[in-house]
Amino acid sequence: MTPALEDILAVARGAARAASIVCLGVLEEAPATPEAMAKLGKEPVTVADYGSQAVILQAVASSFPEHGVIAEEGAAHFSAHAAAAGAEQMVRLVGRALGRAVTLDQVLGWIDHRGGTGPYTWVIDPIDGTKGFLRREQFAVAVGLLYEGEPVAGVLACPHLPLDLSDAASPRGLLFWGERGLGAFAEGLEGGPARPVTASGVDAAGEVRVLGSVESAHGDPALVQAVIERAGLGGGWVRLDSQVKYGAVASGMAEVYLRPRSRPDYRDCVWDHAAGTAIVEAAGGRVSDLDGRPLDFSLGARLEANRGVLVSNGRVHGLVLEALAAAGR
Ligand code: AMP
Ligand code: MG
What we know:
The chain is of the alpha+beta class. It has two domains: 5-197, Fructose-1,6-Bisphosphatase, subunit A, domain 1 (Fructose-1,6-Bisphosphatase, Chain A, domain 1); 205-326, D-Maltodextrin-Binding Protein, domain 2 (3-Layer(aba) Sandwich), CATH 3.40.190. It has helices at residues 5-29, 47-63, 75-81, 84-98, 104-111, 130-134, 221-231, 244-250, 274-282, 317-326; strands at residues 68-71, 120-128, 140-147, 150-162, 172-179, 183-188, 195-197, 210-212, 237-239, 256-259, 286-289, 309-312. The protein has a seven-stranded mixed beta sheet with strand order 1-2-3-4-5-6-7, sandwiched between helices. A five-stranded mixed beta sheet has the order 9-8-10-12-11, with helices on both faces. The longest helix is centred in the N-terminal third of the chain and has 25 residues, at 5-29. The protein is globular, with a radius of gyration of 19 Å. Magnesium ion (MG) is lined by residues 125, 128, 271-272. Magnesium ion is lined by residues 125, 128, 271-272.
């Protein structure tokens, strides 16, 4: 019997919660400065990235072994770069998150689980925004679900997102999730009731709040600024790491997330957009490339067919596309 999407999402929510426990555990045990935190190899990837992916894929392997998987990390890279202390920490924190003792071989096996060829594919970024994570700022555990190549559901655990974006001192930790046809929801990462969320009703350019990456190299800040000026977007421009930006648009904290391609040869990874796209669309928002076409998640690990990404509450999407066209993009 094919499981209902709700049942799959329940497993995904539990997995994303458990994965955030691993991530927060690594931060708790880490030195205070990002420079001192162990990075494995050249890329900014930590023990937490691998532990988080292991926890999520343990859940996929045991509940839905027939589902396909696209995930960012691989065990070979971990084994090549991690010292014994890193392996010990990963095994210990994964075991704690799962509530039972596990071995290094089991954890490495989960990291590399890639499943079957059923119509569902899990698209996983175990820590989206690793640079934000290292700075102890924003990051997300992102779990998207494709059905025959289309994003139909997603979960975003955002352990550092303040419940009120305009008040950095407000309590932190949100879990966003959404399903096509059902809607989008937010709940405290620590538990509590899920509340429906919807994209904002703002349609006046002067009120539009814009989100972008903290890392200038991940986008084209000059183009974002040009679009803001041309379209007269007057609500401010906030820079945040990771797919928490999608959660913010889905829940009405902002109207636009604009991510122009950083370089002509760069193609965004599907795991940076799958979960967020499903949630924003379920919340009544819109996601497209800079030409207004839907993102094509069916071409493997990269969005090969799209240049740049525009996420909005839907109402102001056309306005921003026009400004992009006028800016010559
Ligand atoms: P953000 O925190 O929104 O800036 O996005 C983080 C993601 O940017 C990471 O998960 C990477 O996959 C992705 N990334 C890394 N290098 C680039 C690049 N040159 N252009 C665009 N995205 C990138
Ligand atoms: Mg990422």
